[in-house]
Amino acid sequence: MALLSQNMNVLWSSVLVEELRRNGLDAFFVSPGNRNAPLVSALAHNDQVQKFSCMDERGAAYRALGYAKATGKPGVLVCTSGTALANYHPAVIEAWRDELPLMVVSADRPSELTGSDANQTISQEGLYGSHCLESLNLPCPDPDYPLEALAAKVCHMAQAKNGPVHINIRFRDPLIPMEAPSGPVSQPVLEAAKRYFKNTAPATVYPLVRTSCPDLSAVESILKKAQRGLLVIGRLENNDDRQGAAALASMLGWPVFCDIASSLKGAVGDREIFSLDHPKALALVNGYAPEVILQLGTGLVSKHYYAAILKGGAKYIIQVSPRREHRDPAFKVNIRIKAGVGKFFTALGELKNVSQNKEAAESLVQAAEQVRADLTAATPRDALSFPLIAKIINQNIPGGEALFPGNSNAIRAFDMAGPALAKGVQVVTNRGVSGIEGNLATSLGFAEGAGKRVTAVIGDVSMLHDLNSLAMVSASRAQVITIIVNNRGGRIFERLPIRDFPEIADPMMTTPHGFDFSHAAAMFSLPYAQAKTPNELEKAYKQALDEGGSRVIEVMLDPNKDLEVFNARKSLK
Length: 573
Description:
The chain is α/β, with parallel strands linked by helices. It has 3 domains: about 1-200, Thiamin diphosphate (ThDP)-binding fold, Pyr/PP domains (Rossmann fold, 3-Layer(aba) Sandwich); about 215-370, Rossmann fold; about 380-570, Thiamin diphosphate (ThDP)-binding fold, Pyr/PP domains (Rossmann fold), CATH 3.40.50. The protein has 22 helices and 18 strands. The strands form 3 sheets. It has a 6-stranded parallel sheet with strand order 2-1-3-4-6-5, with helices on both faces. Strand 1 (about 25-30), helix 2 (about 35-45) and strand 2 form a beta-alpha-beta unit. Helix 1 (about 10-20) packs across helix 2 (about 35-45) and helix 3 crosses helix 16 (about 440-450). The chain is globular, with a radius of gyration of 26 Å.
């Protein structure tokens, strides 16, 4: 690390970057620009932070988001003035909704230029509105503004927060490390900066106060007495939560459904129900009539869980989640425990003598397993479809790696897929607001933060939204196998009620096209393979796993045949 002292701009930037580093924020995702040159100069001279140069601003923001998913620490976005920070906004919204840490540091022009028609100047303060937990607006660096105050305020913004924060800092010329026309930095300011850099501690220490679970005796009693219980495992935060959920499933012995984002599909014993979205499976669960539903985590892909099961006759619906916001679209949860699943399991203690109707539970599990087998039989193995693509990936992805199923059709296919993923495969999703943009960039950020290879399965429309991120993938040392399922448009609308109004749906919603991605892969110097059959997909994927590195595999999926498979599976009696 080095103190830049040629002018106040680079001196303040040096303190800002170093204070963030001292608080554990050491990964910076930099969007190029001129107004943020003081910040970039400080980063260039601080050898204890990671710097990721990103050409595309929206992709940079999702890349930082993926890093946060992997590490639990905010990625720090650094940008110039104007529309740059507006391009971060979709990822800021996702971070807000998914309660993920993210920091934006935006450079701004002097306040007198706002509203003056000065170039590349907008009102940046409070730009993210209600989607931002906190904002810090800093003036142009001023020798009369104490450096202790600057460091303390930046330190506060760096504390662990379950959502995005925004630091906006104004700069006058000069923006490069050269002496200002007004002369060198004053000696008192320079001495204060040297004292700051001589010390190595954060400006303020914030001891972590760990909250404990509330008294769970009443919940324990409900769980023990339940004759017909159902365990539902949604998106989980970390390994501690996943271990706690798996242990609780074993201890209860209830029928259990695992959402794809739990990373536990096929890993919770022999009482697992593979799907809540198929009408027949849903009817079986409703016929079982659970009196207690214990939901661990939130954000289930299955809309039928919220639309039907939670509107059934369960007496108690217990939700365990540390999330800040209300997470109950059906408005039926009547016991909320605000805690991580791992902490909940530890606090719960051992549940002995659980008095459940084992015969009813076993009957449900066996009937649901028969539905799964029937669906497998109804899925042709000689022609590509979303269910078969998911199955091929599940069968081949190695344990300890990561899977990113893109939004829309892909994640739904994996949510209903079999066989189980290999042990230790972590599933990463963007289900805060479920946008189709930024999926590849998020996958890359996760790969960089976790040090794991990621297999990203993304639809063609999602890929068109995130095409620029192929440049970042190509330049990164992290490994992302990008599997683009090209069914020539937004075909999810052919599965929704709007399909009955073709004059509306086509082309304005389905957006059909005739593109392939071979030239895009070549443009960004990424190895490319195309698969038109199940065997070609499996061969290309195994080759990608064996050879290592990032690459693109494009799966050419006939939308009509895929829709036939979808309808055949859905109509299974």
